[in-house]
Amino acid sequence: MDYMIGVDIGTTSVKTVLYDTKGQMQGYSNNLYPLYQDVPDMAEEDPDEIFSAIIDGLTTVMRKANLKDGQLHGVSFSAAMHSLILLDDDHKPLTRAITWADNRAVKYADELRENGVGKQLYEKTGTPIHPMTPLSKLIWLRNEQPDLFKQARWFVGIKEYVIYKLFGVLQEDYSIANATGMFNIFNMDWDDQALEVAGVTRDQLPKLVDTTDQITGMNQDYAGVIGMDP
Predict the structure, then answer these.
(1) pTM of the predicted model, to two decimals?
(2) What is the mean pLDDT of residues 89-109?
(3) What is the DSSP annotation of 106-166?
């Protein structure tokens, strides 16, 4: 029998499910992590706590299934949208993951709606102007925490961070990119106007790939812990 694993990175837990190729569930793990709300409107998570939960979940279902070499055909990742993490030159987090539920950028989202720029961007991105989007969060960070903003080399979401940790590549699929408020749905690329409004450049964002993109070559240390072929 052949198998696939689905990993869903949610707001407060990661769900890991092992399926056989007939669609029958053969293993399940739900690993929790905290949501930090230190000040009003904050909703953050620790990206490394999330990553540890993912490793634990994958390890749990692999051990329960006792799969033989070659039986696992792949792992598919999904994630809650609209998260934002600032990374340094070494891809180390400068911030926690600012989640979709974080509302601290409301002032800047309101300004975009009122000055007409928000409508222009919405017509190209299809993403409503809202404080939850990375676009609004980037404007908020640039204005409210400029020193931190300037330190950042990369601006990513939680799924991109996890993929980088596991495979050493920084990429973002179209579905997640579309939720940033900076993705042009007509040319399937980062939108120049949105990037200018956010204050970031293309080379500070992940490479864009299709949602069906496949990656091989998992970090051998993590593969060994989980019990997978690297």
Answers:
(1) 0.96
(2) 98
(3) HHHHHHHHHSSHHHHHHHHH-----TTSHHHHHHHHHHH-HHHHHH-SEEE-HHHHHHHHH
